[in-house]
């Protein structure tokens, strides 16, 4: 019972802290890369209090429910958007034996619950009673349908190579030469993950100039903050999953007892790459987004899966 409580508390603390750290990192990385002055001043030294200032701002704003909204759907959407990522985080191992829930089908579980998180955006688009929000929600649905397939196929390639659906088992089976063997799958997985999180350059559902922030147009205050927190939590889950599947998880120089440090460093590195992509690439058009998925990522993921199967059988 004590071990269960410790695991639950550990996952909860990680879920509350890690997304905030990613949010703070995004402020600072974007400030440096785009010469933004504002985020570097709040609180004095290096703008350390910028995230605190944002939190105070969201708390002070009135939480408004539009008259034409479906109130129950509108209010539940932020919760549906954020909670699945906490469940996903529980199944991602930090080190041998350091995991919230070591599931035999952990990979299947994480991918499944990540897909549930997108329902929050769909509910927000439908429940807002706003045509721009509805249009953004439909874009979310189209994007999810396109990028879920390459996302799952690239992850399946690693599972075939490791001979396991357990994330702990995959991390144990990982070898450094997988960095070359599974490199196409890594690229496909990362790009598809960005699209599922609606991160730039795949932020068509929230395009400011077209659909006025899409599903989240009518949200204010803490409800809007929960959607932002869900996005940062999604980055943590994507970075953690990328680390375990393609970067060896806790594998690194030194004893296995410091493996958790390597996991955290790799997750931090992938998170910074996610932020760097946001700063560096412009938003794609809807036709470009669909073309990349069906004519680019899906064929590459299928070829990678076939080559992995051949490699496992032959070697």
Summarize the structure in words.
71% of the residues lie in helices and 0% in strands. It is globular and about 60 Å long. It has 315 residues and is an all-alpha fold. The mean pLDDT is 89. The protein contains twelve helices and no strands. Keywords: Cell membrane, Membrane, NAD, Quinone, Translocase, Transmembrane, Transmembrane helix, Ubiquinone. Belongs to the complex I subunit 1 family. This is NADH-quinone oxidoreductase subunit H. Its EC number is 7.1.1.-. It catalyses: a quinone + NADH + 5 H(+)(in) = a quinol + NAD(+) + 4 H(+)(out).
Q: Which residues sit in consecutive blocks of at least 5 with pLDDT less than 50?
A: none
**Strand segment tally:** 0
Average pLDDT value?
89
The proportion of residues forming helix, as a percent range, comes to over 70%
Overall outline: globular
The string of secondary-structure elements, in order, is HHHHHHHHHHHH
Percentage beta strand: under 5%
Strand count, sense and barrel status of the largest sheet are: none
**What is the straight-line distance between the termini?**
44 Å
Structural class: mainly alpha
Radius of gyration, Cα only, in angstroms?
20 Å
Number of separate helices? 12
Key features?
single chain, 315 residues, ubiquinone, transmembrane, NADH_UbQ_OxRdtase_su1/FPO, membrane
Compact summary:
The chain has 315 residues and is mainly α. Helix content is 71%, strand content 0%.
Task: Give the arrangement of secondary structure elements.
Layout (H helix, E strand, L loop, with lengths): L1 H32 L16 H11 L10 H20 L15 H22 L3 H32 L4 H7 L4 H4 L1 H14 L11 H4 L9 H26 L12 H22 L5 H29 L1
Helix pairs in contact: 1-3, 1-10, 1-11, 2-10, 3-4, 3-10, 4-5, 5-6, 5-8, 5-12, 8-10, 8-12, 10-11
